[in-house]
Amino acid sequence: MSSSKPKILVARAVFPETLARLAQHFEVESNQADETWSKDQLIAKLQGKQGAFTTGSERIDAAVLDACPELKICANMAVGYNNFDVDAMAARGVLGTNAPDVLTETTADFGFALLMATARRITESEHFLRAGKWEKWSYDMFAGSDIHGSTLGIIGMGRIGQGIARRGAHGFGMNVIYHNRSRLDAALEAECKASYVGKEELLKTADHVVLVVPYSPASHHTIGAAEIALMKPTATLVNIARGGIVDDAALAVALREKRIAAAGLDVFEGEPKVHPDLLTVPNVVLTPHIASATVPTRRAMADLAADNLIAWGTGKGPLTPVTP
Ligand code: DGY
């Protein structure tokens, strides 16, 4: 006997508890083997499904939507939703949801960890030690740059950017400057101890630049060769936003030529591929898109994506819809 529950696809492996909750409301097909599907495979799996539990890896665009006319909602287990063509979804009446707030502090923690690892050359020195190259103490061995008392420049002052600003200003006595599409209100600026500046001034002044801006065609290559040329030769650059915000090829050249001191990257253009030149320069810390990866936070993200589907499935509006 066929089920009267709506059919959904869970496009990637998730916590078994999340699947069990979804199965109370939906007929669920899931990818617990965590296979990497081509677009054609995703389309084939979405046939007959009204809902999809997605991650940033599944591109939901006009071609997918047109091939899956029964699809009504895609719930992303991510705060970022640049994998959604939101205009194409809106034009076809397909809802999109994301998972904001639940990962803010965890991601800000990671941004700060990556900044510290980059400035203090932690992974570079660990590789040196593991390779058996440590023979003596030297006055300049892996000398990096200070965090405390330095100037932190944040591009993208949403919730995660604000979390990084608070950590820098309150925890490390940093002078925090930021650039954003719009200026924060005075009370929030005071709480974050952050001053608004133009992008060029930020790049010229900051000792450490952290990118937390969402990806869109307008933010593509926010940092390229011209922007790197404005930065101090001692500066560091951290990207926890999205691949494509930084021109990775230009950054690799700048790192090799020591035009800036170092970079820390959690996201990459075309990930999971990483630009081969980044893999061969020593002054970059590379991590595989794990800024939100703590067990409690990933559970909260999965729960929120499931809650969005369940709210839709039970006739309530989705909790955290995204808009074009
Ligand atoms: C997000 O939530 O957008 C993170 O980058 C995880 O994909």
Task: Provide a brief overview of the structure.
The chain has 324 residues and is α/β, with parallel strands linked by helices. It contains 13 helices and twelve strands.
Please give a handful of descriptors for the protein shown.
13 helices, globular, 12 strands, 324 residues, Rossmann fold, 2 domains
Describe what you observe in this structure.
This protein has 324 residues and is α/β, with parallel strands linked by helices. It has 2 domains: 7-100 and 295-313, Rossmann fold; 104-286, Rossmann fold (3-Layer(aba) Sandwich). It is built from 13 helices and 12 strands. It has helices at 16-23, 39-46, 62-67, 86-91, 104-119, 122-130, 159-172, 186-192, 199-205, 225-230, 248-256, 276-280, 295-313, and strands spanning 7-10, 27-30, 51-54, 73-76, 95-97, 151-155, 175-179, 194-196, 208-211, 236-239, 262-265, 284-286. The strands form 2 sheets. It has a 7-stranded parallel sheet, with helices on both faces. Strands 2-1-3-4-5 form a 5-stranded parallel sheet. α5 (104-119) crosses α7 (159-172). It starts with 6 loop residues before the first strand and ends in an 11-residue tail after the last helix. The mean pLDDT is 97. It binds (2R)-2,3-dihydroxypropanoic acid.
